[in-house]
C-alpha cells in the first residue's frame, strides 16, 4: 500500500494491531518477527507501519519519550487555525476595495471577486476556495452563501455587463476619433453631448479596464530668438489672456517639428476669447515670411466673416520674426495694435505656449516620426479643423472654440438695439 499508510487505516484497526502485538510478542524471538506476524494477519502493508504504531502507543503510555498523539493533534489544530487566519486576512486585504465602501457592492461584483480568487493559494498557505471566501465576506457584513455564488456564476451577463460592452464600443470610437488624446473626463463629456447618458465614474472604470488613457503634456522648448537691435512695442496685455469678446486679443508664436527631411517650423495665430486658431503656416525656415503668412490668414479669416479688426491687439514674444518691419507694417495696415512680452518669460505669452503644447502633445508626438514638411502640413490642417470645431476645450466650458464664438455672436444678434429717448 503506497504512500503514508497511517492515514489509510481505521483507528480501531491500529489499536487492535498494537494489542495483538503485545499478546504475541512472547511467542517470537524478536520484535520484528512479532510485528511481521500481526501485520500479515491484519493486512497491514508492512511491519514498519505496525512498528510506528507500537512506538507511538508506548509514547502515549509514557513508556517512551516523544510527542504524544494528543500533543501532535493539538499542534496540527493550531497550525490549521493559523493557516486559516492567514487566509482570512489575505481575503480581507484583496476585498478591501469594496469592503471600505458605504454602499453594498452589486452581487455581480461579489460573484466576480469570488470567481477570480477561488483558486488562489498563497505560498505555503491554504487554497482560498469558494466556501472560505463566502464565510469571510459574510462575517464582515457582505453575506453571500456558496449556493448563491454557484447559482450566479454561470448566468448570462447582467444588464450592467451588457451595457458596459455597448459603452466600451462607444468609448473606443470617441477616443480614436479625437486623436487618442481624450482622458475619461472628455470622453464622458463627448458621449453626453452625443446623447449617450452615462456617469463619469463608469467611463473611468471602462477606460481603466481597457487600458485607454489621455495624453499628458511634456516640457516646452523655447524657440524665441530676439533681435537686440529691433525697436519693440510695449506689453499691452500684462498676462491677461481672458478678453470678454472675440477680436480683442490675438496671440502668436512659433513651434518646431523634427522630420526626416530636417526641421519644420509652424506659426499659429489664436484668438484668446475662445482659443480658436485663426491662422497658421508651416515652413522649412523660421523667417518673417512664416509669421506674415500666419497673420495674413488670420486677418482674412476675420474679414471674410465681416468682422472689424480695429480693436485687435496682436501679442507675441520678442522673436526677431515678429519685430521685423514688414510684420509691423502689415499689422498697422489692418489696424491691429502690436504687443510684445518679455524675452525668456513664457508667462508673458502663456496662451500661445499652451496652444503650442497642445499641438505637440496631441498631434506631433503621437504620430512621430514625421517624414517630410508636407506630411506635417497636411496633418496640421486636419488637427486645427478638429481643434476649432470638435475638440472639447475646458476653458470654453467643455465645448469647441468655434461653438463658443458662435454662441457669443448669437447672443449679440439677439439683443434688441438700444433706442434713444427724447425728453
Automatic annotation (TrEMBL):
Residues 68-95 form a coiled coil. The keyword Coiled coil applies. One of its GO terms (biological process) is DNA transposition. GO terms for molecular function: DNA binding; transposase activity. Keywords: Coiled coil. The keyword Cytoplasm does not apply. Gene3D superfamilies: Ribonuclease H-like superfamily/Ribonuclease H, Winged helix-like DNA-binding domain superfamily/Winged helix DNA-binding domain. It comes from the Bacteria. Involved in the transposition of the insertion sequence. This is IS3 family transposase. It comes from Propioniciclava coleopterorum. The lineage of its organism: Bacteria, Bacillati, Actinomycetota, Actinomycetes, Propionibacteriales.
Amino acid at each position: 500500500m503506497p504512500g503514508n499508510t497511517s492515514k489509510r487505516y481505521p483507528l480501531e484497526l491500529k489499536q487492535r494491531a498494537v494489542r495483538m502485538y503485545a499478546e504475541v510478542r512472547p511467542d517470537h524471538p524478536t520484535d520484528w518477527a512479532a510485528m511481521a506476524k500481526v501485520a500479515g494477519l491484519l493486512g497491514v502493508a508492512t511491519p514498519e507501519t505496525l512498528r510506528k504504531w507500537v512506538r507511538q502507543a508506548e509514547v502515549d503510555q509514557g513508556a517512551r519519550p516523544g510527542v504524544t498523539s494528543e500533543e501532535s493533534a493539538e499542534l496540527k489544530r493550531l497550525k490549521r487555525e493559523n493557516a486559516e487566519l492567514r487566509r482570512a486576512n489575505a481575503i480581507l486585504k484583496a476585498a478591501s476595495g469594496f469592503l471600505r465602501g458605504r454602499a453594498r457592492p452589486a452581487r455581480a461584483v461579489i460573484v466576480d471577486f469570488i470567481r477570480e480568487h477561488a483558486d488562489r493559494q498563497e505560498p505555503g498557505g491554504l487554497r482560498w476556495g469558494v466556501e472560505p471566501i463566502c464565510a469571510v465576506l459574510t462575517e464582515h457584513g457582505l453575506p453571500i452563501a456558496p449556493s448563491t455564488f454557484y447559482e450566479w456564476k454561470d448566468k448570462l451577463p447582467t444588464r450592467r455587463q451588457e451595457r458596459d460592452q455597448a459603452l466600451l464600443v462607444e468609448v473606443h470610437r470617441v477616443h480614436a476619433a479625437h486623436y487618442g488624446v481624450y482622458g475619461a473626463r472628455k470622453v464622458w463629456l463627448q458621449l453626453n453631448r452625443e446623447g449617450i447618458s452615462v456617469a463619469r465614474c463608469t467611463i473611468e472604470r471602462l477606460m481603466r479596464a481597457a487600458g485607454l488613457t489621455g495624453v499628458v503634456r511634456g516640457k516646452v522648448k523655447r524657440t524665441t530668438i530676439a533681435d537686440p537691435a529691433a525697436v519693440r512695442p510695449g506689453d499691452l496685455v500684462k498676462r491677461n489672456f481672458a478678453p470678454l469678446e472675440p477680436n480683442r486679443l490675438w496671440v502668436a508664436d512659433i513651434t518646431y517639428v523634427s522630420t526626416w527631411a530636417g526641421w519644420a517650423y509652424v506659426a499659429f495665430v489664436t484668438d484668446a476669447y475662445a482659443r480658436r486658431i485663426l491662422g497658421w503656416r508651416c515652413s522649412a525656415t523660421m523667417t518673417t515670411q512664416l509669421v506674415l503668412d500666419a497673420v495674413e490668414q488670420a486677418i482674412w479669416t476675420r474679414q471674410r466673416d465681416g468682422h472689424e479688426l480695429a480693436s485687435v491687439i496682436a501679442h507675441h514674444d520678442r522673436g526677431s520674426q515678429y519685430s521685423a518691419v514688414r510684420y509691423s507694417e502689415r499689422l498697422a495696415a489692418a489696424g491691429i495694435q502690436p504687443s510684445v512680452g518679455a524675452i525668456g518669460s513664457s508667462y508673458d505669452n502663456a496662451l500661445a505656449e499652451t496652444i503650442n503644447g497642445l499641438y505637440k502633445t496631441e498631434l506631433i508626438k503621437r504620430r512621430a516620426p514625421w517624414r517630410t514638411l508636407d506630411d506635417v502640413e497636411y496633418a496640421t490642417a486636419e488637427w486645427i479643423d478638429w481643434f476649432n470645431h470638435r475638440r472639447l476645450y475646458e476653458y470654453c466650458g467643455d465645448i469647441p472654440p468655434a461653438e463658443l464664438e458662435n454662441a457669443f455672436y448669437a447672443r449679440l444678434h439677439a439683443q434688441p438695439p438700444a433706442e434713444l429717448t427724447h425728453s
